[in-house]
Amino acid sequence: MSEKFSPPAAQLPTDKELVLKVIPMPADTNGNGDIFGGWVMAQVDLAGSVLPARHIQGRMATVAVNEFIFKQPVRVGDILSFYAAVTRIGNTSVTVEVEVFAERFATQGQFVKVTEARLTYVAIDAQGRPRPVPKPAAPLAG
């Protein structure tokens, strides 16, 4: 008798911000019927860019995918939640960690961590050259 593997339910992160929710569709599948990894990577890149945009305040480009781990397959109809946190702000770049959780169609309210990644974005000028990340304004004295 074979039992289907079901990973334990995951807790959603409290130290990251929800930056994107999306539902993959049948057109996003690979030859095995799961969601194509490249589609997931594109969504992670979009989600990962949300927080750096607040710091960079202008054009930016993905300069590195430092780490990308597929932990579980993503299925058609999953509700994917993308959580992100800035881990480093450099002179011209911002590094972000992204965690992706799937809420399976058949088990609403339970989440499975399907992907985690670390990406670096670089601030660029109108010519596409790196430029400094603006420094935050000093807090008001009070």
UniProtKB/TrEMBL annotation:
InterPro entries attached to this UniProt entry: Cytosol_ACT (IPR040170), HOTDOG_ACOT (IPR033120), HotDog_dom_sf (IPR029069), Thioestr_dom (IPR006683)
Family matches, as PROSITE patterns: HOTDOG_ACOT (PS51770)
Ranges of residues in domain HotDog ACOT-type: 14-127
Keywords: Hydrolase
Pfam family membership, one: 4HBT
Family: Belongs to the acyl coenzyme A hydrolase family.
Protein name: Acyl-CoA thioesterase
Phylogenetic lineage: Bacteria, Pseudomonadati, Pseudomonadota, Betaproteobacteria, Burkholderiales
